[in-house]
Each structure stands twice: as structure tokens, then as C-alpha cells.
Design a protein that fits this description.
Elements: H1 3-52, E1 64-65, E2 69-70, H2 72-84, E3 86-87, H3 92-95, E4 100-102, E5 112-115, E6 124-130, E7 133-136, E8 145-148, H4 152-157, E9 158-163, E10 179-180
Antiparallel strand pairs: 1-2, 3-10, 4-9, 5-6, 5-9, 6-7, 7-8
Length: 181
């Protein structure tokens, strides 16, 4: 008879250990997921900050240097290279082939947004900042600036968006990377 109360006491003592062991992998998965989200948020924040550091730099067709001027893809490739170490292709059209295609409703800071500004798809690119805004180098006579994606002009010309940052701040799985630093 003594063995029954002893077994019950032992079962009660071990149940928290068993529960903790069962919860362990789930807690680890949660910690990994939170860590990946933090890394994504950090990479996206660095990218947005880098892109915003070019505000006011004059537009220059074919420009890839902040000191002499940037065009839209020059802005994007500089921001990605300097913020997260990714070397992107030179043109907006080539950039549009990278990463994961996402819908307008799925936009997150750091995503690329594409527009048809020259009567051809993917002729202009910018970096989404959040809250319906994006940063870009618009055109001759202009300078790097922030605009609303919902404005009539940009909304009518929106071509799509691509997510290049994966959860581990590398190029997302479906894209191809031309080079890294």
C-alpha cells in the first residue's frame, strides 16, 4: 500500500519536469522564430536608414555614386550594398527578377517597389519605407526623395513588388544573388 502513495508523489514531482521537457522544443522554435524576426527587422531598418541617408542627392541618369548623383537603381544598389552587403544588378528590370513577388498589401519596409514610368514594365524602382511611403531617385532635375505610393501618379504606375530580404537578412530563397560582400 505504501507503494501507491509513493508512486503518486513521484508522478507529481516528475510532471513539471516532463512538462518542461515537452515545452522545451516549442520554446526553442519560438525563440528561433523571434530571433529571425528580429534579424529581419534589424536588416530592414538598416536598409531603410541607409536609403534615407541619400535624401537630397541629385538625380543623374546612370548614376551609381552619391557624390556624382544617383538614378533609381543606383540608389537601390547602393542602399543594399552598404546596409546589408548584397550586390544587386544594375537595372530596375534586372532587380525585378530577384526575390519573392509580393502583393501591395504585403509590403514591408525594405521591399522593392516597381513602376512603369517609361511605357515599359519595371522601368523604375524604389525602396518601401512603411506607412505607404517609398524612397526613390525620381528623374532628371530631381533628387532622392520620399513619396506616397498611394498618390495618383505612383498608384497608376505601380508594377509590383519584390522582397529580397529573407528572415535571415540574406537574399530570399527564390532569388539569385550576383555577389555579396
Amino acid at each position: 500500500m505504501l507503494s501507491r502513495p509513493l508512486l503518486l508523489a513521484l508522478a507529481l514531482l516528475l510532471s513539471p519536469v516532463a512538462h518542461a521537457t515537452q515545452a522545451g522544443p516549442a520554446n526553442q522554435d519560438t525563440a528561433i522564430a523571434v530571433s529571425a524576426l528580429d534579424e529581419y527587422a534589424t536588416a530592414a531598418e538598416q536598409l531603410v536608414d541607409e536609403a534615407l541617408s541619400y535624401l537630397g542627392i541629385r538625380y543623374r541618369f546612370g548614376g551609381t555614386s552619391p557624390s556624382t548623383g544617383l538614378d533609381c537603381s543606383g540608389l537601390v544598389l547602393n542602399a543594399f550594398r552598404n546596409a546589408v552587403g548584397l550586390d544587386l544588378p544594375r537595372t530596375a528590370r534586372e532587380m525585378a527578377t530577384l526575390g519573392d513577388r509580393i502583393g501591395r498589401q504585403e509590403l514591408k519596409p525594405g521591399d522593392l517597389v516597381f513602376f512603369n514610368t517609361m511605357r515599359r514594365a519595371f522601368s523604375h524602382v524604389g525602396i518601401y519605407l512603411g506607412d505607404g511611403r517609398f524612397v526613390h531617385a525620381p528623374s532628371s532635375g530631381g533628387e532622392v526623395r520620399v513619396e506616397s505610393i498611394a498618390s495618383r501618379y505612383w498608384s497608376q504606375r505601380f508594377n509590383g513588388a519584390r522582397r529580397l530580404l529573407g528572415d535571415d537578412h540574406s537574399l530570399s530563397a527564390s532569388g539569385a544573388l550576383l555577389g555579396t560582400h
